[in-house]
Amino acid sequence: MAKKKKKNRPEPETLGLPAVGVESHAHMDLEDFDEDREAILDRARTCGIKHIGNVFLGPDAYEANRSLFDNHPEIFFLLGVHPNDSASYVPSQIDRMRDLFRSEPRLKAVGEIGLDYYWERVPHDVQKRAFAEQLELAKELNLPPVIHSRDAHDDAVAVLKECGFAGKPVLWHCFGSGPDFARELLDLGWTISIPGPVTYRKNDELREAATIIPLDRMVVESDCPFLSPEPWRGKRNHPALTGFTAAFIAELKGLPAETVWEETGKTATRFFGL
User: How far apart are CA 249 and CA 27, in angstroms?
Assistant: First the structure.
C-alpha cells in the first residue's frame, strides 16, 4: 500500500510579520500545552505577537494556573464562567471574581461568557442568569465582556441589550456568521474577533463578513488549542498560527498582511487597554 504523502505546510515564521500583533483569545493554560508551553510562547514572540490574551474558564482555573505566566508580562488575562460550565455557577463566584479582578491588573476583560445552545449541557435559563450576572460585574468593574455565543445569537444579543451594553465595548469572540449578523453587531458598536475557520474552504459567509468588518472593529484570535487555520487545519492550534488568519483576511481585503496584522493589533490594544 502506498504511503500517504506528507502535507507540506509553511511555518508561521515564513510570514515575516512585525512584532505588533495581538492574539486576543488563547487557552494556553490547558493541559494541551503542558509539555511545550514555554517553547510555544517563545515562538509566538518570534512570529510577531506582542501580546496574548489568555482566557481562564472560571476562578478555579485562574487560581490554579495564573502562575504559569508569571514570567510572561506580554500575556494579559480574561476570566469568566463559560456557559457550558454554568450548571455549577453560584452567585458567590461573582464575589470571588470581583476580588480577583480588583487585585490583578492583568485581568482586562470578563469572558468568555455568554450562551451555548449547541451542546445543550445547561438549561437556557441557567445560562442566561450566569451571563447576565457576569455582565453586571463587567459594568461594575468598567471592563468589557467577551462573548461566547453558539446557536444562541438572538438570545445573546437580547441579554446584552437588556443589560445596557448597546453602544458599549463588547467583543464577539470566535465570530462564525455571515455579513448580515456582522452588520448587526457593528451597528451596536461592538468589536468582532475573527478565528482560523475564516481560512476554511466553503466558509463563504464568514469570508464575506470578514471583508466588510473594518479593521478598527476587528481583532484576530487562535482560540487555541482549537480551530487551527489553514494550512494547519486538523493540527493543534497555537498563537503563532494566528498570523495565517491575518494574512488570509488581508488577501480577502486586498491589503498587505502587515497592514491587517498591525491594525487588528491596534484594535485589540485599544479594546483591552494594553
Answer: 23
Q: Residue 136 belongs to a domain with what CATH number?
A: 3.20.20.140
| 145, 135 contact by CB (below 8 A) | yes
Question: Which amino acid appears at position 184 of this protein?
Answer: E
Would 89 be classed as within a structural domain?
yes
Whole-angstrom distance, CA of residue 35 vs CA of residue 42: 14
Q: Where does the chain have alpha helices with state H? A: 37-46, 59-65, 92-103, 124-141, 153-162, 179-187, 204-212, 242-253, 257-272
Answer whether residue 216 is part of any domain. yes
Separation between Cα atoms, residue 127 and residue 129, nearest integer Å:
5
Q: Which secondary-structure segment (H or E) carries 24?
A: strand 21-26
Q: What's the pTM? A: 0.96
Q: Mean pLDDT per 10-residue run, the chain (274 residues)?
A: 68 98 98 98 98 97 98 98 94 96 98 96 96 98 98 98 98 98 98 98 97 98 98 98 98 98 98 98
Give, in degrees to the nearest 5, the angle at Cα 26 between 86 and 194.
95
Residue 229's φ and ψ, nearest 5 degrees, are: -75, 160
Residues in Cβ contact with 128 at an 8 Å cutoff, skipping those fewer than 6 apart: 115, 155, 159
> Considering the domain boundaries, does residue 197 fall inside one?
yes
Residue 79's beta-bridge partner residues?
56, 110
* Dihedral of the alpha carbons of 12, 14, 20, 23, in degrees to the nearest 10: -10
What secondary structure letter does DSSP report for 224? B
Number of domains making up the chain: 1
